[in-house]
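Internal ticket - ligand job 74, zinc ion:
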Amino acid sequence: MVRVCEICRRPLDSEQDALSIDCGGNCWGCVGQIEADSGYEPSVRQVAGEIRQGLRRQDGTPRLTPEAPTSHPN
Ligand SMILES: [Zn+2]
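stdout (structure tokens):
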């Protein structure tokens, strides 16, 4: 049985989805954004890195299906 995030409904602990780590019933994608928004420093750094990797949008919103980082510089 697949467990899903209670916020965004993405399947948890998917090997193809770096943001699907189970954080107590919600995915890291959602939890990380909430923690970063609240100013929790380790999450701010982690989320910023995931934005650079293309896992999140510029505002920290997790993408449901990870997209390859753009091949264009900047
Ligand atoms: Zn989620």
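Auto-summary: Residues 41-52 form the longest helix (12 residues). The longest strand covers residues 22-23.
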